[in-house]
Every structure is written in C-alpha cells, then in structure tokens.
Amino acid sequence: MWRLREGTHPVLTDEGGAILSEHTGRWAYLTPTASAAVMLLLASTSQEEAAGQYAARYGIGVEQAAADVRTVAEALAAQGLALGGQAPARPRRRRWRWRP
Predict the structure, then answer these.
(1) Which of 14, 72, 75, 99 is 20 to 30 A away from residue 85, measured at CA?
(2) At residue 32, does pLDDT exceed 70?
(3) In this structure, how many other beta carbons lie within 10 angstroms of the beta carbon of residue 2?
(4) What's the rounded Cα separation, in Å, for the pair 62 and 22?
(5) What is the DSSP letter of 90?
C-alpha cells in the first residue's frame, strides 16, 4: 500500500497541489495530473488500482496510466515524502557496552 511518510502534509485539489515535509520545511508542488495521481494512490489499495482509476479519469491506456502513476510515486519516494508499500523504517538503537 502506497502512502505518504509521517510528517508530511498534503494539500491536494484537482487544480494541483503541494506536499509539505516537516522534516525539511519545504513544499513539493504538484501539477494537476500529479495531484490526481497522489489522491488516487492514497485512496487505493495498490498502484495498479490507482492506475486503473487514473486511466478511466483521463481516457488513456492502462499502460500509460501505470507509467504516469509509477513516476509520481517514485518521484515522491525519492524526495523522502512517500513510502512505496514498505513499513516506515524504525530507528535503530545501539546498546553500548564498556569494555576495559
């Protein structure tokens, strides 16, 4: 299941949108079609389902829709704004031992 990373705040509309990262304090601005892809990804259980809905919405082929949705998902994951189906990484705790 695709989702946004914790600490991100989306502002999405059909006219475009943006996602704020609390970690960096920066906004990632989205085109209207990228915003639609994000809304469909968040509402779907899989990227394939989102791509099917994207194809129907824009009247394009399923292959092209899948490529478009995948591009948006990968771009947001590369910016650290989204998780592509994996669980969020847990911080590793190291236990230090003093050895004489």
Answers:
(1) 14
(2) yes
(3) 21
(4) 34
(5) P
